[in-house]
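Ticket #4471: structure export looks truncated?
Reporter: QA, pipeline team
Priority: medium

Steps to reproduce: submit the single chain below to the structure queue and open the exported record.
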Amino acid sequence: MLENSIPGGSVINLLLTEVTSPASFRPIADSIHYEVSNGEGYMVESVQGDLLIQNTEPGSMDPAQAGVTPDYWENSILANYTVVFAFLNFEQNLQIWITVPPEIGIPSEEDNGPVKCRGVRGTDQAALECQTFYDNSSILITDAVTSKEVAPVQVELLLESLMNPDTNVVTESFKVETRTFDGYPMDVLDSNAEVNFFCIFPCRSCQEETPSVCESCYTATTDFIYLWDESCIE
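Actual output as written to the record:
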């Protein structure tokens, strides 16, 4: 009990533990309520609606479960890119936003575009509706999980007809974001989804002088998941 120990006008800081954050930035309809009573049980003050609950930090998808690989590795050709990731938070009808790194091109409608999207694993159907936004190199998928009630273990998408870089580079990471159907941010993945065009597939990382000597493998997107004797094997 704190009776007779708190002077009037004092600031009291309370720490609430083991409170689960909301899955998205969508504000919760309710708020934290609190009441203050004196030692005899009479109410001194009450706050019912001013302490709103709203998440301001997106969830971080596990980079170890993510990866991106093209089906062809030659420079300046169209390739289909496999994108793999795992949801952290989930709800039906969520949006999937994929930002393509600047080293990889998105063809225009006049040049073998726009990009087509297919679900390989973890989606409700194979043929997916996707929109391309050329101003920020992003792709929006809205119908990947319209009927699932539980999050899939992993999601595998195929982005058809992206343009490989014109030189051997290590690209920036693809960025994957999920949002609620009405646009509130949920999760983000912005690392571990780069593509290394210096290395000879299936090497994910290598020294530029020895492109066939593997230092790591594309474990999320291929069957070559074991690194053994400087090679990636099945």
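Status: closed, not a bug. The export was complete when the record was re-opened. Leaving a note from the reviewer for reference: The chain has three domains: 1-57, 59-194, 198-234.
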